[in-house]
Amino acid sequence: MLDNIVIVMVNTTHSGNIGAAARAMKNMGLSQLVLVDPKAAIDEEAIQRSSRAEDILHQARIVASLEEAIADCGLVVGTSARSRYIPWPLMNPRECAAKAAMASANGNKIALVFGRESSGLTNDELHLCHAHVHIPTVEDFSSLNVAQAIQVMCYEMRLAAISEPALQQEESAWGVEWDYELANHEQLNGMLHHLEQTMVDIGFLDPNTPKQTMSRLRRLFQRAGVDKMEVNILRGIFSAVQRQQKVQGVQQDAVKTGDSD
Amino acid sequence: MLDNIVIVMVNTTHSGNIGAAARAMKNMGLSQLVLVDPKAAIDEEAIQRSSRAEDILHQARIVASLEEAIADCGLVVGTSARSRYIPWPLMNPRECAAKAAMASANGNKIALVFGRESSGLTNDELHLCHAHVHIPTVEDFSSLNVAQAIQVMCYEMRLAAISEPALQQEESAWGVEWDYELANHEQLNGMLHHLEQTMVDIGFLDPNTPKQTMSRLRRLFQRAGVDKMEVNILRGIFSAVQRQQKVQGVQQDAVKTGDSD
Question: Which CATH code for domain A2-168?
Answer without folding.
Answer: 3.40.1280.10
